[in-house]
Specification:
455 residues; alpha/beta; D-Amino Acid Oxidase, Chain A, domain 2; 5-stranded parallel β-sheet; 19 strands
Length: 455
């Protein structure tokens, strides 16, 4: 392909994955990141959500393992717990219906590093890739344009001891916006006469609080506990085991409910819907680090796939395309799926790359969006349109969740859909539908609220 260069704007996980993919197709890849990146594993300003629970589902984990062979072993060697399908290791309760707490899921796994450990490990592997130049401490001033294409980016090193450094124009054959929700691509497209992409959005008014804790040895047999909101209770919680014998506790409130940020108050906030042994373990736990709070007023999907005109040389990835409700832990896996799609598109050359890539993103993003917004709209506290198809789908999912409590086959299908391994349409296959219907005939209907404290 000759001498060519790609520039990635943003060095968070989505940007690092994009850079790794691009390194196989371009002679040089430059990653511009505003933060001065830490030399050791630690949180950083540019990833405020890094101080909360994180889960990379099995589909995302397998993509990262393909891009960075040995990643799973590297994370587990660093102390990250690993779930290998043994259901006694987890307690997942969504919609008021817990999954079975015994049995085994085949081909379903995840690893539980903290976000700083995961990002730090991936960043280290990216730095070791010979043709990737990771430039931290650089602001993106603007994108350079030439005729009908994006031709590069103007970077400005942040102030240092010697004073302001001059701006640098970095020419590029391809620029990838990985700057998250604050990405500037919509404004750029408007300024160039292409128009902003249409947006799908839903006001969730989410707020969540997190604190790292040390749980007494043996107090929890699970490595992950997740309890989602239900109608009448737009609150939830999650606690994950991480490296260094620490745990991250997150409590959340939607529809404007504000959770506390002090451990004792957080436990009180969740005790009515959390298994008693988890509550007891948390009351005996010790805070081992600084807590954090984060707000997300709305979820947003920028529909680049619907644009009819698009400048050559520019792509978007990660939260810059779609920012999902984080309580469903889909963001990192969706970013990995987008990176995999970018890889597939580049293998077929760069002709019509934008059209192929953005149309392709509609499938993984749309699947995650349907799952997340469907769950959000199952809560009457969330204001939003509920057309008949949404109501029908939500009722069917409720029945699937209820059946999954005792049916291991349905439980595994549900977990694979939530984990973005299988499309949601697999839940509607004749095999699953028949089992769901049979379950409905066998058992009286239980309301989600009546099940929310059952373990």
């Amino acid at each position: 392909m000759g001498t060519n260069r790609a520039v990635v704007l943003g060095g968070s996980l989505a940007g690092l994955l994009a850079a790794r993919v691009l390194a196989d197709f371009f002679d040089e890849v430059v990653v511009a990141e505003r933060d001065v990146l830490p030399s050791k594993i630690s949180n950083r300003r540019g990833v405020p959500q890094g101080r909360h629970v994180h889960l990379l589902w099995g589909r995302g984990l397998s993509i990262l393992e393909d891009l960075f062979p040995g990643l799973i072993d590297g994370l587990t060697d660093a102390g990250a717990p690993r779930f290998d399908g043994d259901l006694s290791q987890v307690y997942f309760n969504n919609g008021g219906h817990p999954l079975p707490t015994s049995g085994h899921f085949d081909d379903f796994q995840f690893v539980l590093p903290s976000r700083p450990l995961l990002e730090g490990y991936v960043r280290q592997r990216v730095r070791s890739t010979g043709n990737i130049d990771l430039r931290d401490g650089h602001d993106v001033v603007e994108l350079a344009t030439k005729q009908e294409r994006i031709s590069g980016a103007v970077l400005r090193p942040r102030e240092n001891e010697t004073g302001d450094a001059p701006d640098e124009i970095v020419d590029a054959d391809l620029v990838v916006d990985a700057m998250g929700r604050a990405g500037r691509t919509p404004a750029l497209l408007e300024s160039l006469g292409y128009g902003r992409p249409p947006e799908d959005s839903l006001d969730v008014r989410l707020m969540y609080s997190s604190v790292p804790v040390r749980v007494p040895t043996g107090a929890l047999q699970e490595v992950a506990v997740v309890i989602g909101p239900v109608p009448g209770r737009p609150t939830g919680m999650a606690i994950f085991a991480n490296e260094d014998n620490t745990w991250m506790l997150t409590v959340s409130g939607m529809a404007g409910v504000q959770p506390p940020n002090e451990l004792g108050a957080m436990v009180t906030f969740i005790e009515k819907f959390t298994p008693s042994h988890v509550v007891e373990a948390l009351r005996a736990s010790e805070v081992v680090g600084e807590g954090a709070q984060h707000r997300m007023p709305a979820t947003r999907w920028r529909r680049y796939d619907k644009l009819k005109r698009w400048p050559a040389g520019l792509l978007v990835i990660g939260d810059a395309i779609c920012s999902l409700n984080p309580i469903y832990a889909q963001g990192m896996t969706v970013a990995a799926l987008e990176a995999e799609l970018l890889q597939q598109c580049l293998r077929h050359g760069q002709d019509r790359l934008q059209q192929r890539y953005f149309r392709g993103t509609a499938k993984p993003v749309g699947n995650a969006w349907q799952l997340a917004t469907g769950a959000d709209l199952s809560l009457p506290e969330i204001v939003g349109p509920r057309p008949l198809p949404v109501r029908i789908a939500n009722e069917y999912v409720r029945r699937v969740q209820a059946a999954a409590r005792t049916d291991a086959t349905i439980a595994q299908r549900l977990a694979r859909a939530v984990g973005l391994i299988d499309p949601t349409t697999r839940l509607m296959s004749p095999q699953v539908a028949v089992r769901v219907a049979a379950h409905g005939l066998k058992r009286p209907r239980l309301t989600p609220m009546s099940q929310s404290t059952v373990r």
